[in-house]
């Protein structure tokens, strides 16, 4: 029996591994520019750190953790994320000081028992930052700006920041009440998990991916209606500062995150090319987590980028750029006798604003077609003695395989290229 990698895990080979290295190096460079220093965290922790930190009712704690007993029977868990560990470390080593901001970054593998698919693994990689010590909206904006800066420096375009505010714990209580009222009228349509969540933690209902629940949630109240003046003011400042920095964002009043520790601003960065797993990054404020773990009250914010997804986007962007650089037409003169006519045709096609290359070096028809294919061209235009005798050319469409002849003096419209 051959042994294979566990489902949802994979070996990252060349050339993909180069992209992972590039991402990690760039993360260090950009994060340090913002004053963050690296922390290396253990890969496993006491299970309680995550159940309490992330929240009992979340999908992560409820069904996605790799939990096991060690030889002494202690319950340990492979970390599903980094924030809870950083908070533990900050308290354990007294890293947060009154009147100062403590900024930390980390990278490494995380583990979640999710259904594997494109961009979703059971062992995946994150780079993330966590900052402690101020409730200023400027810190929320620093984290968002740093994220955009980091992703842009890797050449990413077409990013979208989605934002919402969850308010403070009191706002969340008020909102939970409104949500419960809304859901109770439609409870029969919700899935079994939501029926439970509705009792224990109604906000989690908004995070449900079951299509029936997603449809019912469309008309659910947004949390904006439940925000106190203080929370609303905080969120308005975040928006004002983002505008000053020219960072585009979109407010999604139904955005919730899959972890319970958030307060105030939450955000995700999404990219179209990832399909349903379109979130590259998630983050936000979590002003209660340090005190929930027994530390002195310390406001905090952070984010984590999914490296596997980021690498996928970089590779797809590069492939698209290469494709953009490819000619649309590759001209093939079958023999030297057609070379002169080929040069003339090439110029004519370029005058029609087409991007055109031509083979000057002869060779068999097969090898010339191979060169044409390699160039990434969409069409090959073939000029042989038969074609020239009739003042024609043969056009082959590489994506459909269709082949047709056209007069040499065809217009662009007649060419259908
Ligand atoms: P998260 O949204 O659970 O947040 O994960 C952050 C990112 O990790 C996601 O946007 C995604 O790119 C990536 N990711 C998550 N699960 C998987 C998976 N199964 N396969 C591949 N990539 C995945 C957190 O983890 C928070 N700790 C972020 C944070 C830091 N909030 C405040 N500070």
> How many helical stretches?
15
Bound molecules: histidyl-adenosine monophosphate
State which percent range the strand residues make up: 15-25%
- Report the C-alpha radius of gyration, rounded: 28 Å
Give the proportion of residues in helices: 25-40%
Low-confidence stretches: none
What's the pLDDT, averaged over the residues? 94
Please count the beta strands (DSSP E, at least 2 residues each). 16
Label the overall shape.
elongated
Structural class: alpha+beta
Strands side by side in the biggest sheet: 1-5-6-11-10-9-7-8
Give the N-terminus to C-terminus distance in angstroms: 53 Å
Main sheet specs: 8 strands, mixed
Please describe what this structure looks like.
The chain is built from 15 helices and 16 strands. It has helices at residues 16-33, 47-54, 59-63, 83-92, 137-153, 169-184, 192-200, 211-217, 229-244, 289-292, 307-325, 339-351, 365-374, 385-389, 412-415, and strands at residues 37-38, 44-46, 66-69, 75-78, 102-111, 123-132, 159-165, 250-251, 263-271, 279-285, 300-306, 329-333, 356-358, 379-383, 392-397, 403-407. It has an eight-stranded mixed sheet with strand order 1-5-6-11-10-9-7-8. A five-stranded mixed sheet has the order 13-12-14-15-16, sandwiched between helices. A three-stranded antiparallel sheet has the order 2-4-3. A hairpin with a 7-residue loop joins β9 and β10 (279-285). The protein is elongated and about 90 Å long. The model has no long low-confidence stretch (mean pLDDT 94). The chain binds histidyl-adenosine monophosphate. Residues 81-83, 112, 114, 119-121, 124, 126, 128, 130, 258-259, 279-284, 302-304, 306, 308-309 line the site of histidyl-adenosine monophosphate.
């Amino acid at each position: 029996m051959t042994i294979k990698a566990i489902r949802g895990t994979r070996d990252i080979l060349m050339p993909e591994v180069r992209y992972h290295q590039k991402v990690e190096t760039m993360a260090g460079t950009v994060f340090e520019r913002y004053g963050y220093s690296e922390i290396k965290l253990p890969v496993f922790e006491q299970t309680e750190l995550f159940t309490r930190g992330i929240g009992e009712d979340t999908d992560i704690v409820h069904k996605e953790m790799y939990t096991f007993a060690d030889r002494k029977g202690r319950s340990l868990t492979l970390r599903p994320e980094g924030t809870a560990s950083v908070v533990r470390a900050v308290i354990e080593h007294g890293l947060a000081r009154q009147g100062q901001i403590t900024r930390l970054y980390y990278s490494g593998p995380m583990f979640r028992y999710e259904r594997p698919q494109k961009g979703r693994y059971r062992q995946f990689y994150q780079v993330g930052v966590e900052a402690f010590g101020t409730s200023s909206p400027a810190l929320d904006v620093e984290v968002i700006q740093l994220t955009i800066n980091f992703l842009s420096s890797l050449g990413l375009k077409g990013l979208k920041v989605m934002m919402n505010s969850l308010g403070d714990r009191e706002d969340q209580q008020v909102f939970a009440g409104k949500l419960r009222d809304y859901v109770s009228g439609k409870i029969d349509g919700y899935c079994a998990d939501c029926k439970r969540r509705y009792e224990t933690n109604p906000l989690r209902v908004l995070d449900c991916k079951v299509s029936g629940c997603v449809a019912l949630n469309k008309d659910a109240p947004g949390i904006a209606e439940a925000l106190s003046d203080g929370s609303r003011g905080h969120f308005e400042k975040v928006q004002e500062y983002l505008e000053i920095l020219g960072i585009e964002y979109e407010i999604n009043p139904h955005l919730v995150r899959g972890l319970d520790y958030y307060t105030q601003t939450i955000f995700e960065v999404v990219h179209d090319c990832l399909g349903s797993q379109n979130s590259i990054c998630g983050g936000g404020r979590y002003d209660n987590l340090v005190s929930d773990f027994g530390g002195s009250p310390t406001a905090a914010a952070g984010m984590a980028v999914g490296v596997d997804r980021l690498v996928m986007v970089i590779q797809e962007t590069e492939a698209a750029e290469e494709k953009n650089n490819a000619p649309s037409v590759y001209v093939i003169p079958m023999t030297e006798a057609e070379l002169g006519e080929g040069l003339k045709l090439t110029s004519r096609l370029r005058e029609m604003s087409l991007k055109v290359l031509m083979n000057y070096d002869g060779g068999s028809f097969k090898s010339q077609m191979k060169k044409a294919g390699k160039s990434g061209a969409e069409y090959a235009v073939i000029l042989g003695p038969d074609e020239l005798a009739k003042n024609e050319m043969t056009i082959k469409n590489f994506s459909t395989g269709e082949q047709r002849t056209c007069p040499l003096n065809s217009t662009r419209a007649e060419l259908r290229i």
